[in-house]
Design goal:
Elements: H1 7-15, H2 32-42, E1 46-50, E2 59-62, H3 68-83, E3 88-92, E4 98-106, E5 112-124, E6 127-133, H4 140-156, E7 161-169, E8 175-181, H5 188-195, H6 199-207, E9 224-231, E10 233-234, E11 240-241, E12 244-245, E13 257-261, E14 268-269, E15 276-284, H7 287-294
Antiparallel strand pairs: 1-2, 1-3, 4-5, 4-7, 5-6, 6-9, 7-8, 9-15, 10-11, 12-14, 13-15
Length: 303
């Protein structure tokens, strides 16, 4: 967790495993003049990123040399205030990327498998809104290659438990390692639905010292799952997080519909926490059927 908690340390750890990475520098940059030299070598636009960052904080897109210094100072300032660490690095900005992540699971005996991918490309302000599994663009060959790369990332830090390896995929379907999240993520239910595995149960078994009860060859994708994050937002104010009282709350129910929430009618949404208040997850045999079910067009679907 310590290694993967730093984007710079994680890049250094996975380098020896030949995991594809976005062109850039794997060291902290503080001098704006050096940053300009690096950016020219990589090619604009570039992305300035906080090493300890997450959720889009400490991240700035720089389109030209003139704005680099000011954007760098803003990224460093935001990184210090958000994470207490002002280290930033520079890499090429991948335009119009897809955000695809691989769920991994390892035990304390050196066994690591991947549980296929989730696509999380629909985002607002670098926060995911829609997640689905499997991705609609991956071929079996690409899925296998990304899965193998994710397992290598987990091996690079001797990882055990449930984790997620995130990748960017460009328009030519080249994929690049982004970061590893050493925890169970918000979107884990879509993986559970297509694999039939309970990831929380698996985490507990790993923590108890048990050996994984399955190998990679035992795992397969069954059907298609979608997840929508339900957030408290103000659509009249650029969908920014907001507070207020829930006057009416009626979550959907039915076969292959799952709602993870903590709110009810009359609940007052506070200002102190993340604005996500619920997750709506559906499963169906195909992607189109899952979309129809998510729209509320219920059909009798057996899982």
């Amino acid at each position: 967790m310590e290694v993967m908690g730093s984007k710079l340390a994680s890049k250094d750890a996975v380098a020896k495993y030949d995991v594809p990475m976005v062109p850039g520098v794997n060291e902290a940059v503080e001098d704006p003049k050096k940053a300009i030299e690096i950016a020219k070598e990589i090619g604009f636009p570039v992305l300035i990123k906080a090493s300890a960052g997450g959720g889009g904080k400490g991240m700035r897109i720089v389109k030209n040399e003139e704005e680099l210094e000011s954007q760098m100072k803003m990224a460093i300032s935001e990184a210090i205030s958000s994470f207490g660490d002002g280290a930033v690095f520079i890499e090429r900005f991948v335009q119009n990327p897809r955000h695809i992540e691989i769920q991994v699971l390892g035990d304390n005996h050196g066994n690591i498998v991947h549980l296929f991918e989730r696509e999380c490309s629909i985002q607002r302000r670098h926060q995911k809104l829609v997640e689905e599994a499997p991705s609609a663009i991956l071929t079996e060959e690409m899925r296998a290659a990304m899965g193998a790369a994710a397992v290598n990332v987990a091996k690079a830090c001797n990882y055990s438990g449930a984790g997620t390896v995130e990748f960017l995929v460009d328009s030519d379907r080249n994929f690049y390692f982004l970061e590893m999240n050493t925890r169970l993520q918000v979107e884990h239910p879509v993986t559970e639905m297509i694999t039939g595995l309970d990831l929380v149960e698996q985490q507990i078994k790993v923590a108890q010292g048990e050996v994984l009860a399955f190998q990679q060859s035992d795992l397969q994708i069954n059907g298609h799952a979608l997840e929508l994050r339900v957030c408290a937002e103000d659509p009249m104010n650029d969908f920014l997080p907001t507070i207020g009282r829930i006057e009416r709350y009626e979550p959907p129910v039915g076969p292959n519909i799952r709602v993870d929430d903590f709110v009810d009618t009359g609940y007052d949404i506070p200002i102190f926490y993340d604005n996500m208040i619920a997750k709506l997850i559906v499963w169906a045999p195909s992607r189109q059927e899952a979309i129809e079910l998510m729209k509320g067009r219920h059909q009798s679907i057996s899982h």
